[in-house]
Design brief:
The chain is an alpha+beta fold. It has a domain at 559-648 and 725-736. The protein is built from 23 helices and 14 strands. β2 and β3 form a beta hairpin.
Amino acid sequence: MAQWDYEQSTPPLNDTKVDRIAETPSGVIDELASLTIDIPDHQIIKNLDQRIEDSTSYWNTPDGYNLRHARSENARIYLNKQLDVRSLYRFQIPYQENQIYIAEQAIIAYLTASTPQPEISPAQDTPKSKIFAADLEKITMAWALKVKLNQVVESAVRFALNKRIGIIYFQFDPTYGKNGEIVPIALNPEEVVIDKNARMGENPQFISRALKMTINEACNRWPEKQKDIYKECGIVYGTPKQLDTVISIREVWLTHYDKRYEPQEAVVYYMGNLVLEKDRNPNWLYASANKNFLATCQKPFLPLNFDNDGQHWIDQTSAVEQAGTMQMVLFKRGRQLMEVADKANGTLVIDTRSGITKADSQDLTGDPNQHIVITGIPGVNNDNLLYRLNPPQIPEFLMQDKLDLRTQIHAIMGTPSEFSGSNDGDPDKETLGEAMMKKNQASGRQDLYVRAIDRFMNEVFNYLVQMMVVWYNNKHFFVYNGGDGEFDHLVISRDLIEDGIAVNVKSGTTLPFDKQRQEAVVLQLLKMDASISLLDAYKLLHLQNPQMLYDNWAKQKVDPMALARDALDEMDEAKAFIAYTEIMAGKTPKDPDDCSKEFVLSLRKLMITDEFMNAKKKYQNAMIKYATKAVESVALRTQLDEATKEGIQALLPQAPLPPLPPLMPPPMPMQPGMAPPGMSPMGQPPMGVPPQPMPPQPGMPGLPMGTNNVTAGLPLPNPAAPQSPSPGDVTGLPTF
């Protein structure tokens, strides 16, 4: 009785050093090994091993989290590995109906139906900030498609359901593409050890990750440690067989405190008694701390939690565990029904007096054409020597219990038949409205998971921007298709990321929705000219950039040509902003090419801002020099275009010459406003008359002359000495 009282009154989490600190006396409650990298290597390894073993013991305590056992049972259920199959007889087979697997697949499909969409707010209320925020939003979406983020999120959700936590780990892979790329990885939680004292949302003092690589890979990553790796692994010559040996390396991210008691983030790689690397957290800018996107330096591990009260990083339970017992009973009930059904033919009973021996009975296969020979006994009915017992009746409650178990499993996990795609009942007895109501109720059960996914993806995209600030020191190019058939070619580097932007994930963007029905209703309202605004219709039709579509419609009503100008202006503004940002960051952008008047105007707008006026003189001079080159390019292109228009007629195909009259009349005297004979009023030859070569113009030495050259005989500007404003005069830029 005392034991029963103790078990009923003691909470499942009963560690007084971690869980029940309120019941312990004040003062020292636990002594932990020091976490720092400013000590000898052998002491670092010893301290880290002690901290890892201490937290591992806490997570796997049977009367606590019992994490190893729970994960093993969940994996066994998910993979349909039943424990009681060893107790079955040879003729029995296990009954397999894994409703938890069906429910879990439905949940994952529902939660990851589409790629999550970030929403980036501009840092300032200026056109360039808004352009950058829109471009960065497209870049993050293009990055998500490039690294297959949707697949990574699917794995993280599956781990969260089966192993109580999902983890996405960020790293920069220098071998990915031309300039390297930021890569997310869905880690197996069984390969990660988390500090036992960390609460959900806090920065754990350490997180350990187990790496598996060959000695070849280790020597490639740490070439300066090649001799030490050989010595630690007992290798002398390094044969191919030895170098392909797989080893385990611990990667530990930790928080330690300096002499001023300020927290510092670091990472240590070690194997056995050898420290391979120890350094500061590489995902942070230390020289320019104000340029970091995140407020504090964080470890590159982002957790996904579904059933957590905030006490720890790891969930206390999961829907799979809650439905696991029901699934085991369902296996048992199904096997019972299957065995009863196997006895539908009844049991054959043979009297030993029939002459059929036990060995002969083994040959009775039940074949309808098989004949049985017995020895008749006088006075005994043959039906008493060989007869078949009536088959057992299937109890009605057994079948009902099986159906109830199915329903209960999906009720626990929030996935009824309408949600998972199956149909256990009679479809004729359930209307479409009733089915949709059940599906909507099941979707409501998933709202907790939906909000957890939104919070998780918000952290993912925020850490992505931090990684961009650190690792995108060179230009990275992305191509984004917004769904309108147009591909946007975007460029990003750390210098283009403005301070003050905000990154959030649009709520519920990972979910599916019945958009066909909604779009049909909207189209019907528009057809009926009902009271619905065009902007709302664009949004409900799920068109890309509905506000832009509505703005373009309004502009077309007023000035159709404004749409063409706006498209060019947007491209020129983005191009000018990128060049301006690079110059303000002390870099030298590529010389302007294919410049237009709008591009020069965009540069001029940037050069009259307060930011430019307050910039250093060297940056101002560099910007003026760049703008001057753009002005010269536009001026040269404009003069070439005007000259080409006058001489292009020489290249056009001409009609056959008409026969000349025998006598040509004398030329008529020219009157003011009249054109010469044979010429149009604008100075162009009429149809059928070949153009006459123009006399050479003086002052153009070095240019070819002739009727076969487009620029023959026309005054062209000298590219070596173009006419341009003074380089130091900002106000001299053309306003066109």
